[in-house]
Amino acid sequence: MKQLVHRICKDLLTTKNEAEVIAARLLNCSKHELYFHTVRDSHLQHKLKSQLAQLKNGKPIEYVTRTTSFLDLDLNILPGVFIPRLETEFLIEIVKNKMVDAPRKILEIGTGTGAISIALARIFAECMIIANDISERALQCAHINIKKYELEKRIMLCRADRFSGIKGSYDLIISNPPYISQERLNRLPKSVRDFEPIIALDGGFNGIEIIAAIILNGYEMINEQGNIALEIDDHQVGLIRDLLILNKINNYIFLKDLFGRFRYLYISKKII
After folding, report:
1. SS3 of 263, please?
2. What is the gyration radius of the CA atoms in the chain, in angstroms?
3. Which of 2, 26, 166, 184 is the most exposed place for a label (fewest CB within 10 A)?
4. pLDDT per residue over 152-182, tens digit each?
5. Between residues 258 and 172, which one has the greater pLDDT?
6. So what's the pLDDT on residue 38?
7. What is the pLDDT of residue 44?
8. What are the DSSP E strand ranges found in the chain?
């Protein structure tokens, strides 16, 4: 294993600690177990060599191992499906802390791996969730994860673009929507730009095209006690506030992430 860690350090220009984390993920073991592993099997050696080559080319480790984590969830992920981020975990915490009454009916726009819906279903034991996505591959991935956590009876997947075909009234509408402006797309890191789905990133000219659609359509679909929770870009606060004021949506709050940046929008039909 020392050779593998050394190879990762050299090829990927990482620290030893980072290399150990990568090696442990490739071998599906803990860092503590890492040095008790021996790789004598030729098939495994070939697999590790191939995986290292992919990582060296900038491919995210989540796509290489086809696994990712979100809160306490261990999820499967397929290449071409958006990788859940640490920032989105805090969106779940916001919902958990802000909602006085546990939501019974939830709509998630753009579910990806299903991470948000699965996390909410495990927190709010009585809720039913509709989770949609325009990507068939994302829905395939979400189905695998929902089945893994035995939530098929409580999370219904549907292929749809935003609110297309969606009916009913909801206690909560939640989304981590595409919010990267077109000007910023080309400046994203190679690992994001070249490998993650553009449809999950592109928020239109100024980045709030889909956010605006979710706010305006979603506000009509939440009930009298309903809420909307969104992840946003901290540069978009002014544009979003103008949109809310223009449409006479008064009960909202922007919330900061762990780095002090305004990354979340929480809207309610009741006073926050």
Report:
1. strand
2. 20
3. 2
4. 999 999 999 999 989 999 999 999 999 999 9
5. 172
6. 66
7. 67
8. 67-70, 73-76, 105-109, 128-133, 155-159, 170-175, 222-231, 252-256, 262-268
- Would you state the pLDDT for residue 131? 98
Q: Could you give the percent of the chain with pLDDT greater than 90?
A: 76
Query: Average pLDDT for residues 53-72, to the nearest whole number?
Result: 92
| pTM of the entire predicted model | 0.91
Q: Tokens 């803990």 label which residue? A: 30
Residue 186 CB neighbour total at 10 angstroms? 7
Domains and CATH numbers, the chain: 2-57 (no CATH), 67-268 (3.40.50.150)
CB distance 195 to 60 below 8 Å: yes
